[in-house]
Amino acid sequence: MASVVNNVVAAVANASNDEAVCGICLDALDRKRSVTLKPCNHQFHRTCALQWAESVRPDIDRPCCLCRSSVREMVGRNGRRVVRSYPFEEEELDMKRQVLEGLLNEGDSFLISLNNTRDQIRKMLKESEIERAIAEKQRQPDEYVVDIDQEGAKLEKRKHAIDNLLEYGATITALGDAATVACAISRELEALNRSNSDLASEEEDGHYAAEQSHNEDTDSDSDSGSEEEIR
Ligand SMILES: [Zn+2]
Ligand SMILES: [Zn+2]
């Protein structure tokens, strides 16, 4: 294992700037967009580096996969910081669980931070559109453009997932006061646990507690807390 790393380090060190390689996939660096890790200044393909960053837990220090020094940030060619977007490759049930547990632990601020993540992804999507236009103008190879498109598709997918999660979170918080919401959350979590174990054995019983359509009857009577004044 160490010898592989040494070979990569040697390959990266030997290559001149023109023929530098990505230390993760070992392809020429200029075939796709690249990022520089700070402060060690090692360069990788942007998508390779992001994929690697997502495999590492966000709450621990990420060591550079080449030199193991801890990474403070990732910087793109334009000098701007590259952040990993919220990974959403998980199963739908797990994502619902994240929302429920987030609401339980952080309340509304969980939804606010999810909203911020969505804004961030929107911004990244706009940036990748610009990058794509520049790449075409510069007549970059197909591979370079495909790399941008693939990241764009991934970001779209995540944005869509967050849209769904925000909607799901909103239906739960709209149920009423804190106690009602907490009650609903534990019911939902129980249902998730049930369907998780059901999925393991048989696939039939995949019902979520929050079925989408019960908007025909009760038109949300806002049970206004009739607050009596205490004298
Ligand atoms: Zn690479
Ligand atoms: Zn490094």
Automatic annotation (TrEMBL):
Keywords: Coiled coil, Metal-binding, Zinc, Zinc-finger. Residues 195-231 are annotated as: Disordered. Residues 218-231 have a biased composition (Acidic residues). InterPro entries: Znf_RING (IPR001841), Znf_RING/FYVE/PHD (IPR013083). Signal peptide: none annotated. The keyword Metal-binding applies. GO terms for molecular function: zinc ion binding. Residues 111-138 form a coiled coil. The keyword Transmembrane does not apply. This is Zinc finger protein. It comes from Pristionchus pacificus. The gene is WBGene00094820.
